[in-house]
């Protein structure tokens, strides 16, 4: 007769059932219950039991150095202490303290370093190298110029700077060495500025010409040159006239960032804000429309076609801007009319400037499209111009180092002042303000240390 179940492995019979109580059971099987493990449990399971009979959760190799000892020891340098040549071991100590990695060439070391890098780190280094290379190529190649010039980029082709030069001397006098030096520095300054921002530069020759050969018409030709520039640059929108005795102090300022991106915040059309000529503004004639009788015209900054500044004596045309428009063509035609200079040349000391003031005073259509800028925004003066005779700095007219004014105009320097001295001073001062970190390091640290050691200044 076969048994219904296999014999019990316990010697005294019965089955090992820790959950059963033999005293309350109705039968003798299972007979004996032991607290420890049974003999037929696997040896592998017994290894994981602790002294108290419960499973142990601690690892066999505890500690960082215990688990990584082999990896750390294999990466340490190995020194050659072999005594293969005992004849020279004591005399020259060959091979003592040498590291085999010292004999590996640089290329091999670099390859080994890259070999130990992970794939993600290699990709990150590759992307960083490509980004740095693109930035370097962009800023050290003509790409940055074309980007700043393009209409879809910086929009530099919309701006033209017209610089007055005097190659062969004027009607009244010829140029000397100092005048040549002024022209050289002024032209170079404007060329560097337009090359940085992608603008066009038109250097006009204001030398003796037959159509300007009238002693009272010299300097009126700027109106004619403005008309010529409008025809020569059909894609340009704004034309900036600069006299020869001007210097761009801050070449890092673009016209867009400095002025045109926030034109509504800088322009004022109500001349009563600053009115040195005491014009009556606005017109009050009843036959005029509302815009002509308004102190701010139509109130739209987009309708301003002439931007200029006022100094202590009135309008100043050493630095002014004109926008391409039908109104501009009309103004230039009237401004250039021979009636203006032939009838008033004995009264108008400032020639074309006085003519524009007369047009502004008498013609409502001129006022409606004329806007004024703070003088120091495009036309700062040195302390000697519009000065009080004491060399004081007037905050409305004079250049301020703290505010880093954009342009300096040495207006009137030919009347009792040193034009070349002022040009040289502001040229050097502009260089000092706009030095790069390497130039600052050489001149503010190395040159100073050398001066303290030797007592002599050096130009590095």
TrEMBL record:
GO terms for cellular component: Golgi membrane. It comes from the Eukaryota. The chain crosses the membrane at residues 121-139. Signal peptide: none annotated. The keyword DNA-binding does not apply. Keywords: Glycosyltransferase, Membrane, Transferase, Transmembrane, Transmembrane helix. Residues 1-37 are annotated as: Disordered. InterPro entries: Glyco_trans_34 (IPR008630), Nucleotide-diphossugar_trans (IPR029044). One of its GO terms (biological process) is protein N-linked glycosylation. Residues 1-19 have a biased composition (Low complexity). It holds the Pfam family Glyco_transf_34. GO terms for molecular function: glycosyltransferase activity. Belongs to the glycosyltransferase 34 family. This is Golgi mannosyltransferase complex subunit. It comes from Tolypocladium paradoxum.
């Amino acid at each position: 007769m076969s048994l219904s179940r296999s014999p019990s492995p316990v010697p005294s019979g019965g089955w090992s059932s820790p959950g059963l109580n033999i005293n309350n059971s109705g039968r003798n099987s299972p007979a004996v219950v032991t607290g420890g493990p049974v003999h037929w449990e696997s040896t592998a399971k017994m290894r994981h039991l602790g002294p108290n009979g419960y499973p142990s959760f601690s690892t066999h190799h505890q500690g960082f150095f215990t688990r990584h000892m082999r990896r750390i020891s294999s990466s340490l340098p190995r020194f050659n202490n072999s005594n293969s040549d005992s004849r020279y071991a004591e005399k020259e100590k060959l091979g003592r303290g040498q590291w085999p990695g010292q004999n590996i060439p640089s290329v091999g070391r670099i390859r080994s370093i890259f070999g130990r890098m992970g794939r993600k780190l290699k990709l990150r280094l590759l992307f960083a190298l490509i980004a740095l290379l693109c930035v370097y190529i962009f800023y050290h190649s003509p790409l940055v110029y074309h980007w700043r010039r393009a209409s879809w980029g910086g929009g530099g082709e919309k701006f033209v700077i017209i610089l007055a030069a005097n190659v062969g001397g004027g009607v009244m006098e010829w140029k000397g060495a100092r005048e040549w030096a002024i022209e050289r520095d002024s032209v170079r300054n404007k060329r560097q500025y337009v090359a940085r921002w992608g603008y066009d530069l038109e250097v006009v020759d204001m030398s003796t010409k037959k159509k300007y050969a009238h002693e009272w018409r010299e300097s009126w030709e700027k109106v004619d040159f403005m008309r010529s520039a409008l025809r020569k640059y059909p894609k340009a929108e704004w034309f900036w006239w600069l006299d020869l005795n001007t210097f761009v102090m801050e070449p890092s300022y673009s016209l867009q960032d400095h002025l045109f991106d926030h034109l509504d915040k800088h322009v004022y059309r109500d001349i009563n804000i600053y009115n040195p000529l005491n014009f009556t503004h606005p017109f009050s004639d009843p036959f005029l429309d509302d815009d002509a009788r308004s102190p701010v015209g139509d109130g739209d900054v987009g309708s301003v076609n002439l931007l200029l500044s006022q100094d202590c004596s009135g309008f100043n045309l050493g630095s002014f801007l004109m926008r391409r428009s039908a109104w501009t063509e009309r103004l230039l035609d009237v401004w250039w009319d021979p009636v203006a200079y032939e009838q008033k040349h004995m009264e108008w000391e400032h020639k074309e400037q006085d003519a524009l003031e007369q047009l502004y005073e008498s013609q409502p259509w001129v006022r409606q499209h004329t806007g004024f800028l703070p003088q120091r925004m495009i036309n700062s003066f040195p302390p000697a111009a519009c000065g009080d005779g004491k060399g004081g700095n007037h905050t409305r007219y004079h250049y301020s180092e703290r505010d880093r004014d954009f342009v300096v105009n040495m207006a009137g320097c030919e009347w009792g002042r040193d034009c070349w001295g002022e040009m040289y001073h502001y040229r050097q001062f502009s260089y000092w303000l706009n030095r790069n970190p390497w130039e600052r390091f050489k001149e503010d640290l190395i040159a100073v240390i050398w001066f303290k050691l030797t007592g002599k200044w050096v130009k590095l």
